[in-house]
Design a protein that fits this description.
With 213 residues, the chain is an alpha+beta fold. The protein contains eight helices and four strands, in the order ααβαββααααβα. The protein has a four-stranded mixed sheet.
């Protein structure tokens, strides 16, 4: 219940809605039932773009989320699958979030978006997840005693702790989409194309990510 509340608050801070499915922490499995949940939601949204973790991660929930979304890709267009929800006529573009895992294959950024102008909003969303950012993750890292008590100081601490340098691979992707401006970008988010969804052209990528010059 607490995590659902935090998700709602994070969405409220940037004007989006969260839907939290009833699959519990550490118990998610790539079952047919959960796959059908995801297929129905993607169809209901008539999604153009679907983002998920890669099925390469230390946490089983993250891995299985990636597998479930992969398994939903293409199947969202098959009418006899979940026939109670009309199938999509066009497969969405499916992409993965960036991660640092190397085996069996490292993340390969196809798109990179500068977030310098919205980094404070991102940190504010993370700040809403109190139980995750200020309790659980510091506990796992062994630095729970370093978390400030004052909300303003805590927010500053969070921002410093989540700043990551832009990798060379992401810098190259920024160069493709931003040209000469790429060198001045300090913060970015990158995405890798999933081969099971639609294969977009560069022109379509620019429509899906309308931030590039």
């Amino acid at each position: 219940a607490r995590r659902r509340s935090e998700a709602r608050e994070a969405g409220k801070r940037v004007g989006v809605d969260y839907i939290t499915l009833d699959n519990h922490d550490g118990e998610l499995l790539p079952t047919l039932e959960v796959r059908q949940q995801i297929i129905r939601l993607i169809r209901q949204w008539n999604a153009d773009l679907v983002l998920s973790p890669r099925p390469v991660d230390y946490h089983p929930d993250h891995r299985y989320t990636g597998i479930l979304v992969q398994d939903a890709a293409f199947m969202v267009t098959v009418p006899n699958i979940c026939p109670d929800t009309p199938a999509l006529r066009k497969n969405p573009v499916f992409m993965y979030f960036q991660d640092g895992f190397q085996k069996p294959n490292p993340f390969n950024p196809d798109v990179a978006v500068a977030i310098d102008d919205v980094i404070d909003k991102k940190i504010s969303m993370m700040d809403a997840h109190v139980s995750q950012m200020y309790e659980w993750l510091p506990f796992v890292a062994g630095n729970l005693d370093k978390v400030p008590k004052d909300p303003a100081a805590r927010l500053e601490w969070l921002g410093k702790g989540r700043s990551l340098p832009v990798s060379e691979a992401v810098r190259q992707a920024l160069g493709k989409w931003y040209g000469a401006q790429a060198g001045s970008i300090r913060a970015a988010e990158a995405f890798e194309l999933c081969e099971y969804g639609r294969r977009p052209s560069d022109e379509e990528i620019r429509k899906l990510f309308p931030f590039f010059p």
